[in-house]
């Protein structure tokens, strides 16, 4: 158990719909990262938040948005869903003490999104 | 554009032998490299990392080698154990970027037979 909690674990929806994925980082971790893993692909970095502010951005689609709340949990919003958005979405957090030296991220179990 | 490549989708090894997982990269700006392991229905877990100023880093049964001139790194597991059976991802980070902004390879499925 990494200590990072993601909900829901599975989600099935239709094209054109909107969904929200939720992530709670490990206690004490200020950074939250979102990654997307499509079928047979490596994980792709989407976005990072640090203590409520956007810190880094990857190739995140304009239809996707994220935020981090004062209690440090984060939500990833996916709208106007397309078939190609079907993927595993991982959230990760990092320790402010060890992260900068090791680069270690702690990943949640992921949210599997299926768009029909 | 695949900047981090793991060209072997799978690897099968006998228990007790050495497992060697390979990774190639193309981006010269990468200066930090990591290996993650992933079991089914779980998130990736960190294994070992190496900075570009080193060519080797060791942690117990796991050793990572970096060849900067060839833009190649490898993970050696000695001795391999059945519990090592998992998907292994190589990841890289560019200098000057957020330390959590990683570029991952596609993964290699390692199977260790008893």
Largest interface, with counts of residues having CB < 8 Å to the other chain, equals: A-B, 29 and 26 residues
Content-based structural category of chain A: mainly beta
- How far apart are the first and last residues' alpha carbons of chain B, in Å? 38 Å
Strand content of chain B: over 45%
**Measured on Cα atoms, how large is the radius of gyration of chain B?**
13 Å
Report the β-strand fraction of chain A as a percent range.
over 45%
Report the helical percentage of chain A. under 10%
Radius of gyration of chain A: 14 Å
Oligomer: heterodimer
Mean pLDDT of chain A: 94
The H-and-E topology of chain B, N to C, reads as EEEEEEEEEEE
- The low-confidence parts of chain A are none
Number of strands of chain B: 11
E-strand count of chain A: 11
Q: Which of globular, elongated, flat, extended, rod-shaped describes the shape of chain B?
A: globular
Number of H- or I-type helical stretches of chain B: 0
Q: How is the main sheet of chain B built?
A: 6 strands, mixed
- The rough form of chain A would be described as globular
Helix content of chain B: under 10%
Strand and helix order of chain A? EEEEEEEEEHEE
Could you characterize the architecture of this molecule?
The complex is a heterodimer of chains A (116) and B (114). Chain A has 116 residues and is mainly β. Chain A is built from one helix and eleven strands, in the order βββββββββαββ. Chain A has one helix spanning 99-102, and strands at 5-7, 10-13, 19-24, 31-37, 44-50, 53-57, 64-68, 74-78, 87-94, 106-107, 111-115. In chain A, the strands form two sheets. In chain A, strands 2, 4, 5, 6, 9, 10 and 11 form a seven-stranded mixed β-sheet that branches. A four-stranded antiparallel β-sheet of chain A has the order 1-3-8-7, with no helix packed on it. The longest helix of chain A has 4 residues, at 99-102. Chain A is globular, with a radius of gyration of 14 Å. Chain B has no helices and eleven strands. Chain B has strands at residues 4-5, 10-14, 19-25, 30-38, 45-51, 56-59, 62-67, 72-77, 86-94, 103-104, 108-113. In chain B, 34% of the residues are buried. The mean pLDDT of chain B is 95. In chain B, strands 2, 4, 5, 9, 10 and 11 form a six-stranded mixed β-sheet that branches. Chain B is globular, with a radius of gyration of 13 Å. Chain A binds chain B through residues 2, 4, 31, 33, 35, 40-45, 48, 55-56, 58, 90, 92, 94, 99-100, 102-110, and chain B through 4, 6, 32, 34, 36, 41-46, 49, 89, 91, 93, 97-107.
